[in-house]
């Protein structure tokens, strides 16, 4: 501490020690709570009278700068003083285009915020009360016993092999031929899609997608400087004729699509249309990036196999998988299933970014999936959410005037009000402590001004009923004004 202290023979020693300690505090070298060396230690190091050190300490203590605690020592209690020559930058002038775009598109900052006491239809997160916490505790103990301390060490960029093996079999059960394909474990859909866009597109490249589509995907593409060409949705999925025209006109780098339980509409694309989309992209050599969103939460009919299952031994489809909407989103785990050469490239990208996903989280999820708990859990939550979905639909039909209700499953309902501005309705509802997601945030271009998404998974039936009633009353008030 006193390594740079130089004695001035013309100034009393105690004054020099006081001044030196104050400089150390103001320069941030001594923080609040720092322990000072004892008076005997300072006297010995500086080779000065101990009385001079004692006097310096007493003067500083009388000014409230330091404090002596009996049996413990002397401590700094004064914080660093602010001065005019502090190192201050104008950070807002240094942000790059990517950072500015992410901030601009951050709906957590730009949309009206939830406040305590509100009925919120904004979230499409799963109901955490359904999480099988006791089983997770047992699984945690099991992996610690089986894996030992190595589970806390570095893992592999591609992922935890037992989890990869499970997911390959899981995708096989969905009808996918996994020969010459591989899996990379990611931090959920967001990282998966961002990696795909980063590796397969350059700034200005064209990507086709449905309109509306997943807001996070829109944000990632716009932040990366991708040119989005959006294709309108029909009641059974993407408009295939307009998709073909866009492919011919723009020669896009890829098609991003959510064929099952589409976000935000909840539409499930039928088998015939899936085949048409696949054949169209195959004909023009356009990769398909398939978002396997909410595939386990169908309520009204049998499951549709993913588009990737149509490709056989082909490699033109990239599948982005996640169980976040039904199973522990806090683990932040997803996967990319694709051609081995693409996965090898993405593995290197993953290693350069975050090295690997949490091995502990991957092992915990793998244990849960392998011990049979997942199948039981899915049956339970499917029944629970189906009842919520049906209850919400009844309340919407009883309280709202609408043009169309979309959705066949999942954790939300998408509504087109026809001739009511959803943001005007949101403003009115917000004043009555109800909040929802306006539909326009899901449209890459313009559109969606009369639409809204209502997430119901985490609300009680009482709040669903009360909230939709308030939305209906607000809608009627707006219609009277019109």
The count of strands amounts to 17
Note the total helix count. Answer: 16
- pLDDT under 50 segments (min length 5)? none
Radius of gyration, whole Å: 30 Å
Main sheet characteristics:
8 strands, mixed
The main sheet orders its strands as 5-12-11-10-9-6-7-8
* Helical content band: 40-55%
* Ends distance: 75 Å
Q: What portion of the residues fall into strands of 2 or more residues?
A: 5-15%
Query: Could you tell me the mean pLDDT?
Result: 92
Secondary-structure-based class equals alpha/beta
Inertia-based shape: elongated
What does this structure look like?
There is one protein chain. The chain has 482 residues and is α/β, with parallel strands linked by helices. Helix content is 43%, strand content 15%. The chain has 16 helices and 17 strands. The protein has helices spanning 13-26, 39-46, 50-62, 97-104, 107-110, 133-147, 161-173, 188-200, 215-223, 240-250, 271-284, 340-353, 359-370, 373-399, 422-430, 461-481; strands spanning 35-36, 66-69, 73-76, 119-120, 181-186, 206-211, 227-234, 237-238, 254-257, 288-292, 317-322, 334-339, 404-406, 412-416, 434-435, 437-438, 451-455. An eight-stranded mixed sheet has the order 5-12-11-10-9-6-7-8, sandwiched between helices. Helix 9 links the parallel strand 6 and strand 7 (227-234). Helix 10 packs parallel to helix 11 and helix 14 (373-399) packs parallel to helix 16 (461-481). The longest helix has 27 residues, at 373-399. The protein is elongated. The termini are far apart.
């Amino acid at each position: 501490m006193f390594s740079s202290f130089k004695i001035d023979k013309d100034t009393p020693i105690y004054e020099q020690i006081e001044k030196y300690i104050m400089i150390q505090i103001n320069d941030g070298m001594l923080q609040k709570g720092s322990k000072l060396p004892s008076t005997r230690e300072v006297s010995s190091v500086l080779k000065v009278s101990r009385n001079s050190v004692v006097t310096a300490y007493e003067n500083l203590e009388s000014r409230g700068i330091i404090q002596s605690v009996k049996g413990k020592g002397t401590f700094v209690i004064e914080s660093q003083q602010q001065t005019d020559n502090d190192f201050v930058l104008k950070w807002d002038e240094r942000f790059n285009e990517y950072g500015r775009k992410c901030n601009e598109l951050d709906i957590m900052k730009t949309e009206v915020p939830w406040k305590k006491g509100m009925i919120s239809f904004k979230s499409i997160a799963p109901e955490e009360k359904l999480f099988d916490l006791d089983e997770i505790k047992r699984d945690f103990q099991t992996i610690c016993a089986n894996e030992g301390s190595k589970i806390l060490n570095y893992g592999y960029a591609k992922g935890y092999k037992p989890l990869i093996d499970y997911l390959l079999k899981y995708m096989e059960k969905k009808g996918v031929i996994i020969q010459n394909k591989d899996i990379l474990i990611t931090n959920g859909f967001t990282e998966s899609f961002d990696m795909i866009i980063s590796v397969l597109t350059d700034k200005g490249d064209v990507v086709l997608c449905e309109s509306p589509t997943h807001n996070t995907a829109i944000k990632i593409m716009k932040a990366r400087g991708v040119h989005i060409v959006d294709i309108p949705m029909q009641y059974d999925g993407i408009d295939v004729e307009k998709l073909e025209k866009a492919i011919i006109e723009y020669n896009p780098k890829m098609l991003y699509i959510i064929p099952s339980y589409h976000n935000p509409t909840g539409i499930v694309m039928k088998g015939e249309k899936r085949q048409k989309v696949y054949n169209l992209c195959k004909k023009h050599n356009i990769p398909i990036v398939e978002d396997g969103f909410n595939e386990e939460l169908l309520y009204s009919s049998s499951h549709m196999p993913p588009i990737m299952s149509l490709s056989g031994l082909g490699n033109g489809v990239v599948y982005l998988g996640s169980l976040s909407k039904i199973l522990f989103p806090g683990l932040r785990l997803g996967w990319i299933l694709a051609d081995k050469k693409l996965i090898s490239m993405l593995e290197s990208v993953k290693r350069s970014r975050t090295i690997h996903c949490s091995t502990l989280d991957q092992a915990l999820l793998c244990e849960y999936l392998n011990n049979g708990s997942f199948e039981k859990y899915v049956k339970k939550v499917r029944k629970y959410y189906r009842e919520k979905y049906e209850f919400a639909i009844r309340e919407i039909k009883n309280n709202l005037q609408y043009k169309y209700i979309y959705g066949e499953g999942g954790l939300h309902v998408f509504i087109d009000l026809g001739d009511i501005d959803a943001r005007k309705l949101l403003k009115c509802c917000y004043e009555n402590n109800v909040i929802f997601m306006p539909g326009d945030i899901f449209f890459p271009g313009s559109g969606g001004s009369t639409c809204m998404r209502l997430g119901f998974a985490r609300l009680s039936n009482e709040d669903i009923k009360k909230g939709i009633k308030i939305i209906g009353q607000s809608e009627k008030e707006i219609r009277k004004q019109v």
